[in-house]
Amino acid sequence: MRSVLRGALAASVLTAASATVQAADLPSMKSAPLPPPPPAFSWTGLYGGINIGYGFGDSSRETGGLGYLTPGGLGALPAGSAWGASQDLHGVIGGGQIGYNHQVSPWLVLGLEADIQATDVESKAKSGIGVFDATGAHLQTADSTKAVDWFGTVRGRVGFTLPSVPNLMIYGTGGFAYGQVIHNVGFADNFAAAAAAGFAGGAVGHGYSDDTRTGWTAGGGVEWSPIPNWSVKAEYLYVDLGSTNANSVSLNGGTAAILGATTPVFAATQNSPTRFHNVRVGLNWHFDPFAPGLVSRADGLSSLKEPPPPAFVDSYQPFQVRLKVGSVIPLDGHGTVYDQGIGHPALGSIGRLSGLTGANGVIAGASTNTSTSIVPMLDVAYYLTKNWAIEAICCVAPHHIQGTGTIASDFARAWVFPPSLMAQYHFTNFGQFQPYLGVGANFTAFWGTRVNNDVWGIPFAAGSALAGLGLPGALATFQWATVAPSWGVVGQAGFDYMFNEHWGVNVDFKYIGIHPMVHATAVAFVPGAAVLGPIFVPVKVSLPINPIVVSAGITYRFGGGLLQPVLAKY
């Protein structure tokens, strides 16, 4: 019996061992590893984009007043007045923004955003008050125009999201606002007794303010990301840039009369608040060049662990976009000023009769300067090969034209649009450091040209016809101006330093040939000869700007898997 049991036990052990060996030889039925889940949606990262909207004013009113300092030929001091007028601030607003978001938790996003906007927001306000006093009846008027040429903001953002809808964010925003506000006011007081007193019409003056105002802004909006890396937004902002004051004294009074009676002299002011609502929509592109990438592991899964820095590979990426900030520095800007007009029918050209205009029409001692601007820039390029590229360069810049010498005044300001098309050669044998040279053509257009209506004096040279009448000089202001388009050549040198095949930084230097012709009309008053009335003088300015543009920014190249070099076979 014992031997039988021992035999059965041995057989069982051998059978189990055999089954184990056979099982080890069979293929494993273990399931394949699951792919990693997609990363959770996050607002964290940099973004940039464009926007467009509409601005409209609140219920703010302009206020002003006028009072007299001397009676002039009227004998009695006229009465002044005070007034208020509604303004209708409104216009289209468009520009760009750049910012950074940080997702603190599934429901809270903190961020910082800066934007810059070009606008045609403007308002007009008119007022008129009839006065009757010892001088008789007279009508005092103020004609005010105001424009916001551009404005920008730097704002914090606090956003709220829901874990169930992480790609939809509602946010509040607020911070610092700044912008260029231009305020012009024409003052006039027309006297019924002017003709009897021996002067023409009445007293006229012009107040002007043009400077960068600062203030605050607050608002909110909603932003939605329907697809990766892109979002759309709707936003409301209230912008307060404070108030401007335009002040003036009468331009055609104040000097002892030499030719007829003089007009009375007033002092006038107009206060105008600049507050407006802004409703806009925008498009943002989100990117984070410093985000960790996916790294393969031995088990076939992926990890978000930061990979070791790879060796630089300069693969062909045909498309390139650069976002930059540039400084536009006029090299010359000193214009030659020509007196083109006959001027007053009775006196001929005021320039010649003042002794300032030569036979060639150049006004002696008159010149102009052009201001420097700091502006955002966009460059777009296509690489025909890794070395040869075609680039289009775009920016919009505001510039002041300042009169100097015998036309010392804040002459005019204009928006400048100088697109350029360049052919470039890029040197690629220095690794990540990639210098380049370029040459091309520029076409510059000017729009939104406005004279600043600053008041300046025209001195009369000794021995001139007007000085011979005992008149010391005239007061003048520019009434109208336009700037003709300009063609020119462009030279360029710069470099990119590439962090990888897509991202890099850029430094660039350009010379742009810009030499437009400015046509303007000045209106002059001779205070000691009010009977002459206004004297209109057409003026031409040959304005060589020829700026150096120094810029720096971010380079992004893409599209390497889409196209092959067009000229690779060459």
List descriptors.
mainly beta, eight-stranded antiparallel β-barrel, 4 helices, 28 strands, 6% helix, disordered C terminus
Please describe what this structure looks like.
With 570 residues, this protein is mainly β. Helix content is 6%, strand content 61%. The protein is built from 4 helices and 28 strands. It has helices at residues 2-25, 194-197, 350-353, 465-468, and strands spanning 45-57, 61-70, 81-86, 90-105, 108-133, 136-162, 165-191, 202-227, 230-249, 265-287, 295-296, 302-303, 319-330, 336-339, 366-370, 373-383, 388-395, 397-405, 409-417, 420-426, 433-451, 455-459, 473-483, 486-498, 503-512, 517-525, 535-542, 547-558. The protein has an 8-stranded antiparallel barrel with strand order 1-4-5-6-7-8-9-10. The chain is flat. 36% of the residues are buried. The model is unreliable at 293-306 and 565-570 (pLDDT under 50).
What's the short story on this structure?
With 570 residues, the protein is mainly β. 6% of the residues lie in helices and 61% in strands.
Count every beta strand, where a strand is a DSSP E run of 2 or more residues.
Answer: 28
Give start-end ranges of low-pLDDT stretches: 293-306, 565-570
For the biggest β-sheet, the strand order reads 1-4-5-6-7-8-9-10
Q: Rough shape?
A: flat
In round numbers, the mean pLDDT is: 81
Helix content: under 10%
Give the termini distance in whole angstroms. Answer: 96 Å
- Structural Rg: 36 Å
* Assembly state of the chains shown: single chain
Total helix count? 4
- Report the sheet with the most strands, covering strand number, pairing sense and barrel closure: 8 strands, antiparallel, barrel
What structural class do you assign from the helix and strand content?
A: mainly beta
Strand content: over 45%
